[in-house]
């Protein structure tokens, strides 16, 4: 089974690409979503978050206080490291268990911080999605109702596109003017060696 990492900075369009892949019946592990589930379910993470951020890391009804955690995490590299070190090993184990349950010849891990987290070690090939910084910022401001400062704080906790480009195997431009579906189809034939369409 080929494992493909789908990465790119905030707002580049990873989830957009992931949805196109799901429509082709490819299983995609959504790291953002699964990390938040595990931050609710894992007793180790819960305790660690309360120790680092305080009881308010969870709301009175037990949900994740995303706003507070985000303001802590994106305030400094030290804070980000503390949270990442707590959460990422649990996500890694969960991903590997998920992979074991999949049947296809190819699966995808969607993760903005694939290289920063070391999750690139878990995949065979990396597909990078790119868009100009201004486009990414505007997309996220519109999608999340976030301020430019909030988006830039998240970008600052991530690797530059220049660095990602050096390491990725495939690059897809999602600036809003390219035929992403067509490019993806061709690229996918190369990655999957055509096996994809035999599933
Ligand atoms: C801070 C949290 C609560 C914000 O939740 P929210 O629903 O607003 O955002 P969401 O999880 O959908 O993430 C949106 C984007 O933010 C960026 N982002 C999220 N976590 C990180 C991080 N640790 N470092 C850098 N960028 C990050 C990514 O571009 C991501 O795609 C949440 O992102 C979180 O708990 N992050 C820590 C766990 C983590 O590292 N998750 C990401 C991959 S494992
Ligand atoms: N080619 C496109 N055409 C139109 N809208 C797009 C395109 N690509 C992305 N978008 C929109 O831009 C926003 C950001 O895209 P998306 O959520 O896929 O980014 P992301 O890389 O997954 O971001 P994050 O790192 O926050 O998870 C979404 O609202 C999405 O629908």
Automatic annotation (TrEMBL):
Any one of the GO CC terms: cytoplasm
Gene Ontology molecular function, alphabetical: ATP binding; dephospho-CoA kinase activity
UniProt pathway: Cofactor biosynthesis; coenzyme A biosynthesis; CoA from (R)-pantothenate: step 5/5
Residues reported to bind ATP: 11-16
Location in or out of the cell: Cytoplasm
GO biological process, one term: coenzyme A biosynthetic process
Catalytic activity entry: 3'-dephospho-CoA + ATP = ADP + CoA + H(+)
Alphabetized UniProt keyword annotations: ATP-binding, Coenzyme A biosynthesis, Cytoplasm, Kinase, Nucleotide-binding, Transferase
Domain of life of the organism encoding this protein: Bacteria
Claim: ATP-binding is one of the keywords in the record: yes
EC number annotated for this UniProt entry: 2.7.1.24
Pfam family, any one: CoaE
Primary location: cytoplasm
Keyword DNA-binding attached: no
InterPro entries attached to this UniProt entry: Depp_CoAkinase, P-loop_NTPase
PROSITE patterns named in the record: DPCK (PS51219)
EC class of the enzyme, as a word: transferase
Family from the record: Belongs to the CoaE family.
Function summary: Catalyzes the phosphorylation of the 3'-hydroxyl group of dephosphocoenzyme A to form coenzyme A.
NCBIfam families: dephospho-CoA kinase
Matching HAMAP family: Dephospho_CoA_kinase (MF_00376)
Name this polypeptide is given: Dephospho-CoA kinase
């Amino acid at each position: 089974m080929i494992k493909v990492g789908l990465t790119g900075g905030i707002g580049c369009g990873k989830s957009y690409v992931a949805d196109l892949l799901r429509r082709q019946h490819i299983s995609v592990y959504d790291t953002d979503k699964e990390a938040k589930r595990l931050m609710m379910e894992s007793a180790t993470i819960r305790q660690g978050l309360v120790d680092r951020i305080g009881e308010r890391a969870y709301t009175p009804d037990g949900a994740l206080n995303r706003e507070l955690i985000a303001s802590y995490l994106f305030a400094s590299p030290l804070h980000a490291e503390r949270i990442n070190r707590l959460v990422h090993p649990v996500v890694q184990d969960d991903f590997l268990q998920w992979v074991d349950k999949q049947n296809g010849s190819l699966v995808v891990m969607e993760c903005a911080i694939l290289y920063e987290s070391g999750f690139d070690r878990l995949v065979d090939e990396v597909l990078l999605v790119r868009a100009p910084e201004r486009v990414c910022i505007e997309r996220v401001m519109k999608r999340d109702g976030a301020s430019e400062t909030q988006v830039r704080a998240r970008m600052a906790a991530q690797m530059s596109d220049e660095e990602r480009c050096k390491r990725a195997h495939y690059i897809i431009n999602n600036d809003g003017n390219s035929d992403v579906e067509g490019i993806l189809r061709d690229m996918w034939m190369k990655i999957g060696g055509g096996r994809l369409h035999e599933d």
